[in-house]
Amino acid sequence: MVKIDAIVRPNKFESVKSALIQLGVEGMTVSEVRGHGRQKGHTEVFKGREYSVDLLPKIKMELVLAEDLVDDAIDTILTTAYTGSIGDGKIFVYDLKDVIRIRSRERGKVAI
Amino acid sequence: MKSIMRQRESLSFAEKLTRLSGRLRDPEWRKYGATLLTGKMAGVASTLLIMAAVTGIFFSKVLAADSTVKAADVVNPVNTAWALIAAFLVFGMQVGFTMLEAGFCRSRETVNVLMECIVDTCLCGILFYAIGFAFMFSHGNGFIGYHWFFLQGAPETYESTGVAFLAVWIFQFAFADTCSTITSGAMIGRTGFVGDLIYSLGVSGFIYPIIGHWAWGPDGFLATMGASGYFLPTLGMSFHDFAGSTVVHTIGGFIALAGSIVLGPRLGRKFKRDGGGPMLPHDLTIAASGGLILWFGWYGFNPGSTLSAMDIAGIGRVSANTTLAACAAGLTAMMYAYIVSKKWDVGFTVNGFLAGLVAITCPCYWVSPTGAIALGGIAGVVVCLGVELLEWLRIDDPIGAVPVHGICGIWGTLSLGLFACGKYGATGPLGPDNSAPLTGLLYGGGLTVLKAQFIGSAIITCSTFAVAMVLMWAVNLTGTLRVSEEGELYGLDLHEHGISAYPEYVISSLAAPAGMPADLTVGQPQGHGVGKLVTE
């Protein structure tokens, strides 16, 4: 079992989500996060004074998948979340130790 | 005849004349014509008869005016109603101030701003009833009034205005409330609530009424100055402040300045010259909407100061001037911000139109609409420069209260000396009295008005600032003026008021309604199925 964290632009999130559901991904956890990469944000001006905007809003999707779905899911995310500009986001892939469904206490692949 | 009537071709005018002369010679046509004419005459006559009959039945009672209009019957009620409508509009400015201040501060001090605005209003009402109105508007000497404490022994109408006494009281209370709210503007984010109560006592009870008496009291020394037997008899001109650029706004602004100097900046505030940026506002929707509500309330502030609906030219002109000054100032402030930062800045624009309104408040009765646009446009730039000045002096003014009210209040007062157009003199309960119009420098009136304005503004500004510094310093000595450091970092809302402005997003545990027990199974009957166990 594999966990994928995908950090994507907020305005790309809907297309990523529908593409993943079409692919067969059955569950996800989504949070609104802020962060930056190598560019470290930019400066704005308010009332004549400059201030730095170095934490930009993004959407983080956490997906738990069986091995056979992982490559397809990653390809889907790469295609739908891409714009070509700085700030497209990142995907992190982890090995997952166990998955447990709370209602039925099922463990393992059955619980995904 | 029939053959002629069946004719379908259209005839020219000459042909029609020929046809007419032909018909007149025909006896049948003559009878037909006579009948037609008689019928038309009868129709006209009966119409006129019906009109006369209807008029006679329904409109014979005409409401004729009395030969002498008694002031007490009509004029005083009209003027009192006008004064009250204006008073309610000015009170509506409290909503505007609350929204403006709350919007420009951070969310962690919002409840503190709301409480201060509400409580300042309540305190001001009681103080103005007890001593404020007495100090400010009763007879006494040039510095202070000493009648009508607790509104005792008051006449039915106020002085020569003919307006009901208590209506004038509430109208002036609304002005006092405005001044009191301005003072808290520059001090938000780090003022202790008890300190705010104490200094508000001083402002609403003493500073505003007493200094205001000098300009607006019936025997105030600035109001009567320039005549023989009074202050500066050779000046030949008294101090004029129609609706309070100086009395309300400069006084409020400079008390705010004293307060923010004594308090010091908010923790973590870095100024522009030290490389810092702004502390960002938390809700610009509320801030901008509050500004517009203030503009709306200003339509009571300025035109209402005639206390006379009979001066129709006056109230119309004042309303128009108020509008135009605000419009011009908003635009020039916005342009200044764009030139300086390449952004269409909302903070400067809102402060801009407010500055225009403050500036027009003094001269609104005596300038032309063109003059209003000019002095408003200048105010829009002055306020932006004022914001930069305070930033450079390392004075933390979160909403720009000092540049908007203090500095543009001075500009508005002085601008009367330039822009008074020489046509308007004084308002009155039965109509205007333009026998001694005010003429400013730009209309050939020389420096007289400008000198009087400068003297009045300087005296009031300096005395206000001096007294306010003493007051703030004294309150600071009691230790209540500034909150503790932990309190300020924790957030004034939670520290002083026990709740945040947005508790759902800030402090309650997600999804648990406040007040529910932490353990949700407590009190539930045992054995309720939670789902069967699934064994592998």
Which CATH-level-2 architecture of chain B?
A: Orthogonal Bundle
What is the mean predicted local confidence, pLDDT of chain A? 92
Question: Given the C-alpha coordinates, what overall shape of chain A results?
Answer: elongated
Domain unit count of chain B: 1
CATH T-level fold name of chain B: Ammonium transporter fold
**Number of separate strands of chain A:** 6
Q: CATH H level of chain B: which superfamily? A: Ammonium transporter AmtB like domains
Main sheet specs of chain A: 4 strands, antiparallel
Biggest chain-to-chain interface with counts: A-B, 14 and 23 residues
Counting DSSP E segments of at least 2 residues, the number of strands of chain B comes to: 0
* Mean pLDDT figure of chain B: 90
- Give the helix proportion of chain A (percent range): 10-25%
Poorly predicted segments of chain B: 521-536
Globular, elongated, flat, extended or rod-shaped: what is the shape of chain B?
A: elongated
- Structural class call of chain A reads alpha+beta
Distance separating the two termini of chain B: 116 Å
User: What's the CATH class of chain B, please?
Assistant: Mainly Alpha
- The count of domains of chain A is 1
Task: Provide the β-strand percentage band of chain B.
Answer: under 5%
Describe the 3D structure.
The complex is a heterodimer of chains A (112) and B (536). Chain A is of the alpha+beta class. Chain A has one domain (2-111): Alpha-Beta Plaits, CATH 3.30.70.120. Chain A is built from two helices and six strands, in the order E-H-E-E-E-E-H-E. Chain A is elongated and about 60 Å long. The N and C termini of chain A lie close together (9 Å). The model of chain A has no long low-confidence stretch (mean pLDDT 92). In chain B, helix 8 (245-263) packs antiparallel against helix 13 (401-419) and helix 10 crosses helix 12 (369-392). Chain B has 17 helices and no strands. Mean pLDDT of chain B is 90; it is low at 521-536. The longest helix of chain B has 34 residues, at 71-104. Chain B has helices at residues 2-5, 13-24, 27-58, 71-104, 110-137, 165-185, 193-216, 245-263, 284-301, 312-341, 346-361, 369-392, 401-419, 448-477, 485-490, 492-497, 503-506. Chain B is elongated and about 115 Å long. Chain B is mainly alpha-helical. Helix content of chain B is 61%, strand content 0%. Chain B has a single domain, classed as Ammonium transporter AmtB like domains (Ammonium transporter fold), CATH 1.10.3430. Chain A binds chain B through residues 44-52, 103-107, and chain B through 272, 276-278, 280-281, 337, 340-343, 345, 347-348, 384, 387-388, 391, 400, 531, 533-534, 536.
